[in-house]
Amino acid sequence: MRRNSVRTDRLLVIGAGPIGLAMADALKQRGVAFDHVDASDGIGGLWRHGVYQGVHIVSSKKSTGYTDYPMPAHYPDFPSSAQMLRYLENFARDRNLMEGLELRRRVVRAQPLSDESWQVTFDDGEERTYKGVAVCNGHHWDKREIDYPGRFTGTLIHSAEYKEPKQLAGQRVLVIGGGNSGCDIACESARVGASCDWSLRSGYWFLPKTVFGVPLTDLPIWNLPVALQRLILHTAVRIFIGDYRRYGLPKPGHKLFARHPAFGTDVLNYLRQGRIKSRPDIERLAGTKVHFVDGSVGEYDVVVAATGFKNSIPFLPKSLVPIENDVAHVYGGAFPANVKNLYIVGWAQARNGFGTIISPASKLYADMIALQDEMELPIGFILKWRGFKIPASQLLDPGATRRTIWVARRILPLLKRRSRLLAEKGLREPFDPARYPFEDENGRIQATLKC
User: Fold this and answer.
1) Residues 170 and 209 in one domain
2) Prediction pTM value
3) What does 224-247 look like in DSSP terms, one character per residue?
4) In terms of domains, do 290 and 319 share one?
């Protein structure tokens, strides 16, 4: 028998990774009622099940940890995945966030019935009706697969499926992609594999993790204008790394921060040692052979696609919060303009560690969520009318984001008044859930839910 319950006195927070935990803590401190669920068997998100052995964070403990809950002093500058998970578990325990947290609870559908009512369906068929939903499901889980002509008949895995060095031991390995995971796995292949080739579609920016013995993400540069940040980091690259072409790599064809840079120089050292061979983009796959665009051919036992992840919220109606080029169409970082009581938190990625942004942002969001109960119009609608824009990139400039949070906190008292004025003008049509039908994985429209 299908179970149903009505919980319209509270929100549902989906996800108990670093972002979901920060939101739960902020909502609890603000006195906002919520339930909290996660599909996994424990808290931590990516740091519980999504990383490989030996991985360390690339931003420092200072910039990654919550600002009001620093990482332990005995942690190294760049903690391991095990240390990160212990840190998050300690945070959840000390903030009493485990009480009431429901694990192994996967949401398969969350659909608005009205501005004040959301129906949430779980994978076991249970349905609950909530006032709203805070989506904190992360952005490192929906794999971006390779799409080259032909077929590879050896072992082909995504970096998300790489867990330990024995998967590469003694193998001829090709790693595709130049992000942090691609760099790490290429280095591991150089250490334990029979050989390692590394294919890059285009040039990447590789930054040193430390400068003059200080973690790069701890330098006092991140509040500066972006142009000045670029100038300083270009200088650091010239001093500590040099021209990427000396390592056999293509020169980046984009500005620094237009895409996420890679942190660390181990992979560059292996290139100079000949343990990693640089390859251009792939033309086609043919059995165990890979043909590259420069006409060269390589034969491999294992291909690792370190091709990143897509921003995805599969349990929401697709047209409710469009995502284009990994950018969610929300205002103020979390608020859709077309519906109340839906909050998309953590879809973006900070350039130098999540802690210094999510700590103040989650507290601001909790205040705004509480304020939404006193307002007729969606917060996102009001922010749109105040001139807030949809971000141009998934990457957040830490200094600019903190300044935006500072400004947003000071205009909070004005939002309620602006909501009343805009409502009196009738600028927003009544919310109609029928405009946002839920589609299954094949794009078929599912039955419209009824109140």
Assistant:
1) yes
2) 0.93
3) S-HHHHHHHHHHHHHHHT--GGGG
4) no
Cα–Cα distance, 181 to 357 (Å, whole number): 23
Taken as a whole, the chain contains a residue count of 451
pLDDT score of 1: 43
The torsion angles phi and psi of 267, rounded to 5 degrees, stand at -65, -35
Helix, strand, coil percentages in the chain from 3-state DSSP, rounded to 5: 30, 25, 45
CATH number for the domain including 114?
3.50.50.60
Strand partners, 439: 445
Check residue 277 and give left, alpha or beta (phi > 0: left; psi -120 to 50: alpha).
beta
What are phi and psi for residue 108, nearest 5 degrees?
Answer: -110, -15
* CA–centroid distance for 365 within its chain: 18
pLDDT in tens, 12-55: 999 999 999 999 999 999 999 999 999 999 999 999 988 898 89
Identify the pLDDT of residue 447.
Answer: 53
Over 70: is that where the pLDDT of 451 sits? no
Q: How far apart are CA 67 and CA 399, in angstroms?
A: 15
Alpha-carbon distance 12 to 36, whole Å? 6
CA 212/CA 230 separation, integer angstroms: 18
